Fold:
Amino acid sequence: MLQGKNVVLGVTGGIAAYKACEIISGLKKIGANIDVIMTRSATEFITPYTFQSLTGNPAIVNMFQSPKYWDMEHISLAQKSDILLVAPATANIIGKVAAGIADDMLSTTIMASNRPVVFAPAMNTKMYENPAVQQNIQTLIKRGYHIIPPKGGILACGDEGQGKLQEVSVILEELQKIYRQELQGERKDLAGIRFLVTAGPTREIIDPVRFLSNHSTGKMGYEIAEAIVARGGEVKLISGPSSLSAPKGADFLSVETAEEMFEAVKDAYPKADVLIKSAAVSDYRPKIREAQKVKKESREGEIQLTLVRNPDILLEMGKIKAPGKIHVGFAAETEKIIEHSKEKIQRKNLDFIVANDVTEEGAGFAHSTNIVYFIDQNGEYSKTEKVEKSAIAHEILDRVLEKKFPADK
Ligand code: PMT
Structure:
């Protein structure tokens, strides 16, 4: 998403300033161009030359320094940038922006920008909890600035609490999400389309303390639901157990077992134009659900667990698929990915399938990224790079739109 885009990174004076180097290296991997603006206090923690070496661009500190490295005026970085990130953001820069003060290169650039500005605060816990800082953060949020909250832990000063700069991987993921949402917010191309999405694992109960499940976190499906909301679509998200928060704006239903998911999908299906089944549904469940905990003391040696087949939800919905509806399946494979996926498209009556090789690094379960094959009914396929699941989500939705409103060839 940020490939080839201009990111302005504001670095302010805190002990986490060195983490800006890691942020730059992450942004470079994505393919972004980076310009660094430092506050005077940041230079007490790290030098402009470090950033110049990492980005290949001079790091700007002084608003009035001679423009020998760049040929534009001092607000031009604000105009050139696609997104601004301030990380670490001190209480001082947050306070200044909230109060409308522009007295150095960074605060001036923020003030002159009409692009998304994202703050990743890092400071002592007591400072972070100070009502003045909290109020300033609220002011920024109300004005449309974005905040990536700090995490908790033991701080450099020895205090324990919230105030540590968020993990760099989380900052990069959030930054891309915010950028995408800003872009997508401009196009509500899914308005009027009703989606039914499933996500997460299912749990098949053995007894009151044990269950069978899989590694799905729900991330893939939740990203799809978020992307639908961002693009103006309507979405019902039916999720197996997940620690993720229900996406804002989605009609959310939590279920536990495959059978419960099947009932919920059948209920919601008539109102949906598009079904996307990213859930990792258990194919089997224990034949008997024990009412009490199975005690090892009461059984000698090995025990047998008899499993019976669960309904294949996607297959069943494929049998009653109404004309005009679009069904998108997922396939989690470990071998013969194309062959197995092509078979699933036909058998489950799908418009296309999103297949991931769950043994590939950065793909499948529990990663923030995925690598997928989009495979069509006619067997044509393409493979993505390793990208954030949010980017895969948008690509799926683009493909749904192509199916729904095919361009004249
Ligand atoms: O949740 P994450 O941690 O982000 O991980 C994402 C993911 C790996 C779970 C996701 O990318 C994925 O691959 N989901 C599908 C997993 C799966 O069950 O694949 P499958 O090949 O076993 O099933 C094929 C399709 O049939 C899927 O759309 C599945 O939802 C559906 N199915 C399967 C079995 C069943 N009993 N009922 C179904 O509806």
About this structure: Residues 200, 216-220, 258, 277-281, 283, 310, 312-314, 329-332, 344, 356, 358, 364-366 surround PMT (CB under 6 Å). The first strand starts at residue 6 and ends at 11. The mean pLDDT is 92.
